[in-house]
Amino acid sequence: MENIELIFVFLLGICIGSFLNVVIYRIPKQKSIINPPSSCPACGARIKPWHNIPIIGWFILKGKCANCGAKISIRYPIIEVLTGLIAVIVYNKTGLNIFFVTNFGVFATLLALSMIDFDYKAVPDSLNLLALTLAFFTSTEIMNNFTNALILMGGMSLIRYYVSYFIKREAMGEGDIIVGGTMGALLGIKLALVALFIGSAIAIIPSIYNRIKNSDLELPFIPFLALGTFIVWIFSDYFMQLWSNIYG
């Protein structure tokens, strides 16, 4: 029975991943995510249903549009696989219940936000607020989650104002602060701080590379915050024990 549920959860995840690809492409362009049906960005030809099957469709088409031969990014099946894996990981921790829906919803939305941030260095408030709202309901302690979100957002805003003043440029985007609220609601204050540290540590090497290679001072930060959050959420017991060992 458990194996059947795992298969169901993975298939559900890759289907959601297919929808995320639509969200990632259309929302930044302010297009409807419902109409029109999926079509080739190059020639506008409608994508046939059997070509739109998650993961398999990309391989059937050999990564090219069936009509014009335009290349289809491999990122599409990668997003689908990642979303399927996220669904399985969340299921293994929460079981198949309402908290699976809310926790998976948060991480799926963070994945979409991460990809959009990579592409545009900005994220839509609609998705960011969706992740934050879902995070309030990831446990039974809804008011406590809300309070933790406020504390993290307030703290990050305070840091933003001070650092921006001293370095004479924007130190942190508003989108990052909303994600901070999501982290607080989802993880609690202590674990959210750990996730912030891990996300920042992971971002160091890409940031240096980006500065040297592209002479770009701006690095999308939300993908690293999301990754740090996911790592800490998965191993929350370990990180909480580590926190207790260090700080008592």
From TrEMBL:
Residues 11-92 form the Prepilin peptidase A24 N-terminal domain. Signal peptide: none annotated. GO terms for molecular function: aspartic-type endopeptidase activity. The keyword Transferase does not apply. Residues 107-206 form the Prepilin type IV endopeptidase peptidase domain. It is found in: Cell membrane. It is a multi-pass membrane protein. GO terms for cellular component: plasma membrane. GO terms for biological process: signal peptide processing. InterPro entries: Prepilin_IV_endopep_pep, Prepilin_pept_A24_N, Prepilin_peptidase/N-MTase. The chain crosses the membrane at residues 6-25, 97-115, 149-167, 187-209, 221-240. Keywords: Cell membrane, Membrane, Transmembrane, Transmembrane helix. Belongs to the peptidase A24 family. This is Peptidase A24A, prepilin type IV. It comes from Nautilia profundicola (strain ATCC BAA-1463 / DSM 18972 / AmH). The lineage of its organism: Bacteria, Pseudomonadati, Campylobacterota, Epsilonproteobacteria, Nautiliales.
